[in-house]
Amino acid sequence: MSIPEIVYYVLALALCVFFALLKKWNEVRYSRKGIPPGTMGWPIFGETAGFLKQGPDFMKSKRARYGNLFKSHALGSPVIISMDPELNRYILKNEAKGLVPGYPVSMRNILGNSNIAEVHGALHKRIRGSILSFIGPAAIRDHLLPEVNKFMRSFLDNWAGKTVDIQDKTKQMAFFVSMKLIVENEPSPFHEAFKATFDNIVSGTFSLPIKIPGTNYFRGLQTRKKVVATLKEVLAKRRSSSATHADILDQLMRSEDFKYKLNDEEIIDQIITFLYSGYETVSTTTMMAVKYLHDYPRVLEKVREEHFAIQQRKRPEDLVSWDDYKDMVYTRAVIFETLRFANIVNGVLRKTTEDVELNGFTIPQGWRVYVYTRETNYDPILYPEPLNFNPSRWLEKGLESHNHNMLFGAGGRLCPGKELGSVIISIFLRYFVTKYRWEADGNELLKFPRVEAPNGLHIRVAEYTITRKES
């Protein structure tokens, strides 16, 4: 063997030893007495790649080896992952016992330190109360529902004869309807410019917090700066004018209720979070509902029957009323089944503010706890025949409020936008299914860490005509 070959093998061996020691060092660094079993992966990166790319398979393989509670390292933090339904419920119901929201650093820095998903205690109650006063049932009935109606009528006009990417369309819908509700009087170019950069915020929140130009995190931070600057200009413009506006921003700015009053920083963070959560969850749920309605014709038929029954008692020009919305019982069931079946929300993150005992293990202060709810959505005890798309299951009394239904969170963290999101999707489906029929192309779908169609989800749209049998 020549000297260069010897040097090559020595270097290769040295690198192998170095990386093995590096990985071992990360295991030692996070070793604690009494913590759940598991592995931590590489320094800094941990097991983020497996967590994001392998998704459910990563979770199942870990559970098979370590049980329902195990440790890992993902998205920049040591994390305990819980796949135990009873323990998950306990974690989400006991924020006061050292289990506060603990979303990744990337999400906190991009959405803002005052966003409702991040704050806890008295500040969370104040912000939540403020938001519910503007997007709760009374506000939806009196102010928001008519605006959603008018938007959907215009947005869904003239689709017949076209092939559209329903993923892109539902993203536009979710973003622009939210923008209209927040800042109703700004011109269309303002909304278009705002959306053009907003994808960076979404991708930035699901990334390692490495602040280097070119990374998703860096782009997300830069986009946040632009969004904050734009919103500050809007706030300043409105304060310099005596005009009032029938939108959420105006109500946030002019609230006289000291109990729920927010400062400018808090207002901006809630608007960014409102847009973010609606953009991601509402758009994806709507897209998947359209897909499942196509895949399950009998479900689509029932949805159409429900909406045509509502339509028969109204004039063509009438908007959907609050009573009409409350009658969309089966449509609501479709929304819930879509959330469950597609696993739009995979889990919830908490952070320990002190050492916390869970199932006999001690979770160190400052660690994340990932309440992984995906498997609960396929629990055959809670959801018989869980691999069947069956909206009718949600018509059973009590299922929506069942202890293990965490589609919208749980306890004091139940999503404040739950009802508004349901209204937006319901009104979209109401106009879509009564105006159009559609055929879908076979497009690839990813289910983890986000539900998305990498190449779009294309459908061919045609006008829907009621046949004699249906009429």
UniProtKB/TrEMBL annotation:
Primary localization class, coarse: membrane
GO CC annotations on file: membrane
Query: What is its cofactor?
Result: heme
Binding-site positions, heme: 415
Subcellular localization, as worded in the UniProt entry: Membrane
Please give the biological process terms from Gene Ontology that the record holds.
brassinosteroid biosynthetic process; brassinosteroid homeostasis; sterol metabolic process
Q: Which topology term describes how it sits in the membrane?
A: Single-pass membrane protein
Molecular-function GO term, any one: oxidoreductase activity, acting on paired donors, with incorporation or reduction of molecular oxygen
The protein's UniProt keywords, in alphabetical order, are: Heme, Iron, Membrane, Metal-binding, Monooxygenase, Oxidoreductase, Transmembrane, Transmembrane helix
Database matches in PANTHER family: CYTOCHROME P450 26 (PTHR24286), CYTOCHROME P450 85A-LIKE (PTHR24286:SF105)
Q: Provide the family line.
A: Belongs to the cytochrome P450 family.
Q: What is this protein called?
A: Cytochrome P450
